[in-house]
Amino acid sequence: MLMPFAAKGGRVLRVYNCVVSEHDVRLVILAALICLVSSYSALRLFGRTRGEAGLSRLGWLFLTSLAAGVGTWATHFVAMLAFRPALPTAYEPALTLLSLFLAIGSMGLGFWAAASLGAALWRWVGGAVVGAGVGLMHYTGMEAFLVPGHLTWEGGYVIASLLLGVALTAIALGVTGKGRRLAIASTILTAAIAGLHFTGMAAVSITLDPAIFVPQRGMESGVLAIGVAAGALVILGVGTLSLLLDQRSRDAGEQRLRVLAEATIEGIVITENDVILDANKSFCDMIGLSREAACGMRFARDVLGPALQTHLERGSVDRLEGDLVRADGATVPVEIIARAFDRAAGVNRRVFAIRDLRQEKAAERRIRFLAEHDVLTGLANRATFNERLADALAHAFDQGTSVAVLCIDLDRFKEINDLFGHAAGDAVLVEAARRMRHALGPNDILARLGGDEFAIIQPGGLQPQGAVALAQRVMEAMRPDFEVAGHAVVIGASIGLSIGPEDGAEPDRLLANADTALYRAKSEGRSSFRCFEPEMDSELRERHALAAELRRAIAHNQLTLAYQPQYNIASSELVGFEALVRWHHPERGSIPPSVFVPIAEETGQILALGDWVLRKACRDAASWSRPVKIAVNLSPAQFQQPNLPEIVRGILQETGLPGSRLELEVTETVLIRDLPRAVSLLRRLKALGIRIAMDDFGTGYSSLATLQAFPFDKIKIDRSFVGQVETHPQAVAIVRAVLSLGRSLGMGVVAEGVETAGQAKFLAEEACDEAQGYLFSRPRPIEAFADVVGLPPSTSMLDRAAA
Ligand code: C2E
Ligand code: CA
Ligand code: CA
Questions:
Q1: How far apart are alpha carbons 382 and 389 in whole angstroms?
Q2: Spatial separation of the C-alpha atoms in residues 785 and 780, rounded to whole Å
Q3: Catalytic annotation, pick one of 415, 578, 663, 752
Q4: What mean pLDDT do residues 183-197 have?
Q5: How far is CA 763 from CA 442, 568, 635, in A?
Q6: Whose CA is nearest to atom 21 of ligand 1?
Q7: Is residue 89 a contact partner of residue 208, using CB atoms and an 8 Å limit?
Q8: Separation of 579 CA from ligand 1 center, angstroms?
Q9: 3-state helix, strand, coil in the chain (%, to 5)
């Protein structure tokens, strides 16, 4: 019996009839659903191959083929279950299985080609291969279909079914993508599979053949149903699994991004149409709000300063610097990098990276400050001073006005520094800077040029009156005692000033002239000020000339020694001489040591000079038949030589003078510099049998403590006290105190500068040990004392004075 499915009418109608009249429509719908789900899964998985490589892509391709192959296969067989030809039907197991593997394999090949072979065309070609795979599966599956009869095929429908399947599948893979495109492609793929199937079914006719007995040869539909259900489960499983995997990797990606965003020091903000969607902790800290509070705010309007706002609204720039406005109203300097990452119609999503420039700006300010200022006092430094002075001078030229420069030197700073240490010295400088700052006018610039050297620029004003008034204010400010390490100390300041452009048209000249004036002020006594005068310049040159001539004088042995005798007051006996250096200049005549000794000290010639004096004094003394002692003055600079004891010992050996006849006079400044060092040096000198006298006692800072620290052999009371004992009761008190101090410490006391018999009498009454002064003798060449040093004295000098 012939059982044609054919109906009269059009081909499309025939397919329609095939579906509606020969099939159980409910199962057809189920098949379509399975097809849709598997198509969607397969294409979605296919989408995941994008951006993947190697094994990972192969893995996704395998899942894709599994979902597509199993899906198509299940669709086919559910559709076959829906097929009700009113005959016993069954399925050949091997072919059924083969059709499944063919589906997976051939479709896999197509997907691979579409995913891996680069060019866009390959997606369509690959799609066609997938479509062919659907056909292969369908017709192999039909081979497994057993009915009691023969199947015959109408070629046109078969070809149409294949063309339809191949074309639609190619389109599906061609258009597939994300979102809507995925949905459209899934629908097209479903249409491809279903179309192929039902067009293919429309091609089939069954010719009954009672000789063929169906159930014995194949599995029943019920068994197939189980297989199909399992297949559907596989698709669902694969689909769900991929979804889960996807979600997890997306979650992991988001997690990674969040960690990254939180780990960056930069603030990160994501906005949509300027509304903050998300922000990291750094940003929230920067503006002083919680994340919850920050989200929902308007970024440009609420957070950015006005300048940044307009920049950002213009939108063209993607890197800007400006200010953020914190919740508390304070501003934060920042650098912002903006990136638009999604600019769909009407939606403007941007991400901002925001760098906090506060530390950078603070460091910049600090560096600039350090470059321009003195760290200790916070005043302008020398470089800044020079710049400002150049500006002020240029301005004075332009305006026809003046600018004054004041050089200021703290009078007793070096002593304080030596005596109380650097920390105390620093404190004095800070306090001095503070006081001077108060004395300034509004336009004056105070700078510390180094050490205890300060300078002021006073621009404009009536000069020199303005500068003189300022100098007086500064000196006035420095007058009160400074508190140093618990002591009240007088510091005082000396000031030299010059007025530009008259005293100097260049900054260097003007400053140098103020310095010359300062030098003059200092040499005239402490706490005074001097205005620069052109003669000062020549005086300074004179000094330089004198220094050069002194060098020659030392080298050419033009110096001589004068000797001033010292007497025991009680016995009137000559006890020794003090050696005092003399310079008879061939043209200038006699130059006093108070002039050239300081020059020698300033120019470093004092070592050679001191060496000469010591050697000459020792040689002279060694030649005398009367072994009186000889006192030699030592400058502080000589004390800076660590090998001084060796030098002295060398000279003693060379001249043959016993150490016990030599007395070295030192001032307390040698102790102040570095007491432990000085004490050890003095001890080494004393070890040579030499005696040490403290010169000019009472004029400095000597305290009982310094005296006790080093047991001097002798104290020389300064002549300023001795000269006043007849007129000033205070001088009497001081001399008495020194005498009792000497007695209690076991040190002899010498009074210097004794000029009158009254003074000598007073000293005798007070039991002073020794005396020296014009009363007895001026310092004279040793020849004047030839008889004294050669023979015992015939008459007592004291008696002669009294006569
Ligand atoms: P000094 O060490 O205090 O020396 C004593 C000074 O007082 C000497 O001045 C001396 O001439 C002076 N004199 C002595 N008796 C009287 C007096 O009765 N009345 C007055 N008014 N003065 C008196 P001179 O020689 O001009 O020396 C001044 C200073 O120069 C010395 O003060 C000393 O510090 C320094 N000096 C002199 N010779 C040397 C030397 O060879 N080496 C070093 N380093 N310094 C020296
Ligand atoms: Ca002396
Ligand atoms: Ca003296």
A1: 10
A2: 8
A3: 752
A4: 90
A5: 58, 11, 28
A6: 753
A7: no
A8: 9
A9: 55, 20, 25
Q: Tens of pLDDT along 345-358?
A: 566 788 888 998 98
Ligand approaching nearest to the C-alpha of 664 = 2
Q: CB within 5 A of ion ligand 2: which residues?
A: 633, 665, 695
In this predicted structure, what is the pLDDT of residue 626?
A: 93
Q: What residues does ligand 1 touch, defined as CB less than 6 Å away?
A: 564, 580-581, 592-594, 597, 610, 613, 633-635, 665, 695-696, 719, 753-755, 773-774, 779
Checking 391-398 for CB contacts under 8 A at 24+ apart, the result is 392/445, 392/457, 392/459, 392/500, 393/500, 393/501, 393/505, 393/506, 393/507, 393/510, 395/459, 396/459, 396/460, 396/500, 396/501, 397/501, 397/505
d(CA 790, ligand 1 centre) in Å: 25
Q: Ligand 1: which atom is nearest the Cα of residue 635?
A: 44
| Alpha helical stretches, state H, 51-92 | 54-82
Mean pLDDT taken over the chain: 86
Cα of 700 from ligand 1 centre, angstroms = 17
Tracing tokens 């004036």 back to the chain, one arrives at 517
- 543-575 residue pLDDT tens: 889 999 999 999 998 999 999 999 999 999 999
Ligand nearest to the CA of 753: 1
pLDDT band (50, 70, 90) for residue 402: very high
Look at residue 222 in the predicted model and tell me its pLDDT. Answer: 67
Q: Which ligand is nearest to the CA of 600?
A: 1
- Among 264-268, 394-398, 624-628, 728-732, which stretch is predicted with the lowest mean pLDDT? 264-268
- The closest residue, in CA terms, to atom 15 on ligand 1 is 773
* Residue ID of nearest Cα to ligand 1 atom 37: 580
Whether omega for the bond prior to residue 501 falls within 30 degrees of 0, making it cis, is yes
Q: Which residue has the higher pLDDT, 764 or 320?
A: 764
- The stretch 324-328 carries a mean pLDDT of 88
Q: Which residues pair with 780 in a beta bridge?
A: 563
> Catalytic site residue 372?
no
Which pLDDT tens digit goes with each residue over 680-706? Answer: 899 999 999 999 999 988 876 666 667
Angstrom distance (rounded) from CA 617 to CA 596: 19
* Segment (H or E) for 406: strand 403-410
The residues, any chain, with a CB within 8 Å of residue 84's CB and separated by 6 or more, are 22, 23, 24
Nearest residue (by CA) to ligand 1, atom 43, is 633
Q: Whose CA is nearest to atom 27 of ligand 1?
A: 593
Both tokens of 647, joined, read 């030098």
